[in-house]
Amino acid sequence: MKRRTLIAGLGTLTVSSIFAVGSGAFTSVSAERTVTVDVADDNRALLKLEEVGSGRRSFKDGSTVAFDIPSPEEDDYGGTDPEGVGTDSVYRFGGDAAHDRTGLFTVANQGTQSVEVYATQQSTEGVPTVVMYDAETGDRLTKSSPSDPLAVGGDPLPCGLEIDTHGVPVKEDDPEYEVTLTITAVATDAD
Length: 191
Fold this sequence. Notes:
The structure is a single chain. The chain has strands at residues 3-11, 14-18, 34-38, 47-51, 58-61, 64-69, 85-86, 90-93, 105-109, 115-121, 129-134, 157-164, 176-187. The chain is an all-beta fold. The strands form three sheets. Strands 1, 5, 6, 7, 10 and 13 form a six-stranded mixed beta sheet that branches. Strands 4, 8, 9, 11 and 12 form a five-stranded antiparallel beta sheet that branches. Residues 60-81 are annotated as: Disordered.
């Protein structure tokens, strides 16, 4: 069976906006508005991402959380020495290789209102499909089925990655695939 390695990266975006709204005796009005977007590293962003465990499936890569599957330090397979995930398969990684905590990474809300989170993959053409899921419940976190609300300053959500390799070609010259997920936080109406 051919094997391949997946490298995925996650990043967050901090958004602040400035809008001025007024009322008056106008039937129509046109005005320029300014939107300012500041990008912060994960520890100072509105949505904090943090790697989990010591087995190095997840790690900090600059300002993002990144993943190596399998981990370069992963040797607990009884001497089989796998080089990656197989073809036409679905895998779930809900913990680091050391299995010392639940989740590959956590998502914490550092904003000012409760949010629901989910992840999207920009492109699936020629690469494995990767979906973020709640590592405690097993629920996939998609736009149509986001997480339960994350409270401001509440417990972080432990997450895993589901990797689907159906229909993905094996690259003999470079078996690594780079996949980028975008994590979206949507404010809930509870606040």
